[in-house]
């Protein structure tokens, strides 16, 4: 099976298994992810917002534009990375995803990562970080690569601030941009490990 087929099957499973039926009813569509299935870096946000829900693509609103700018700053573009969210339906009124919603989607996120098999997983904000690095504080560890056991292999997690949180906060914005610029070096080190 190609990676494209595997991802399409996974998408069908989310619907067939009725993951978060209430969110599904209030959302326009499932926002699975976008980018290259051969990406070396996967970015994981929290959940689709209004624009993402309408277009079926993650990070296409204001936070997405900022994310695009930072990717450019780091010498990357959206086609060569993969971008997704932990929760794949828009929560009503853009509220934070609930713990049970994150829990329900977690196995599918894991499967998505197994299909793509990246070297680096970049979490955007605490909602996706807390599952990979439980009990950690983003203020203390943002930008620092952490090697974790993931199934039968090790992967590197880089926890970053969420672009929407950093957008209008001068200090955090600069920290996030600095962390982004260091991603190619972290990827390089992960490639040689
Ligand atoms: N914020 C997220 O976490 N994900 C999106 O897709 C858009 C905004």
Provide structural commentary.
The chain is of the alpha/beta class and 193 residues long. The chain has a single domain, classed as Uracil-DNA glycosylase-like domain (Uracil-DNA Glycosylase, subunit E, 3-Layer(aba) Sandwich). Helices cover 49% and strands 15% of the residues. The chain contains ten helices and six strands. A six-stranded mixed β-sheet has the order 1-3-2-4-6-5, with helices on both faces. Strand 5 and strand 6 form a beta hairpin. The longest helix is centred in the middle third of the chain and has 18 residues. The protein is globular, with a radius of gyration of 16 Å. The two termini are 28 Å apart. 38% of the residues are buried. The site of uracil has 13 residues, from helix 4. It comes from Candidatus Saccharimonas aalborgensis. It is an enzyme of class 3 (hydrolase). InterPro entries: UDG_Type-4/5 (IPR051536), Ura-DNA_glyco_family4 (IPR005273), Uracil-DNA_glycosylase-like (IPR005122), Uracil-DNA_glycosylase-like_sf (IPR036895). Belongs to the uracil-DNA glycosylase (UDG) superfamily. Type 4 (UDGa) family. One of its GO terms (biological process) is DNA repair.
């Amino acid at each position: 099976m190609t990676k494209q087929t595997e991802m399409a099957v996974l998408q069908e499973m989310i619907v067939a298994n009725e993951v978060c039926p209430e969110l599904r009813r209030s959302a326009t569509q499932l926002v699975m992810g976008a980018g290259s299935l051969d990406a070396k870096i996967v970015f994981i946000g929290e959940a689709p917002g209004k624009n993402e829900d309408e277009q079926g693509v993650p990070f296409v609103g204001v936070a997405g534009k900022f994310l695009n700018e930072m990717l450019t700053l780091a010498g990357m573009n959206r086609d060569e990375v993969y971008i997704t969210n932990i929760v794949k339906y828009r929560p009503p009124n853009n509220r934070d995803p609930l713990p049970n919603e994150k829990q329900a989607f977690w196995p599918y996120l894991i499967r998505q990562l197994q299909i793509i098999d990246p070297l680096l997983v970049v979490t955007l904000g605490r909602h996706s970080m807390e599952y990979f690095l439980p009990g950690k504080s983003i203020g203390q560890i943002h930008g620092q690569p952490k090697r974790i056991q993931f199934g039968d292999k090790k992967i590197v997690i880089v926890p970053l601030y969420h672009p929407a949180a950093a957008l209008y906060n001068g200090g955090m914005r600069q920290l996030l941009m600095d962390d982004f610029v260091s991603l190619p070096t972290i990827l390089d080190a992960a490639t040689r490990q």
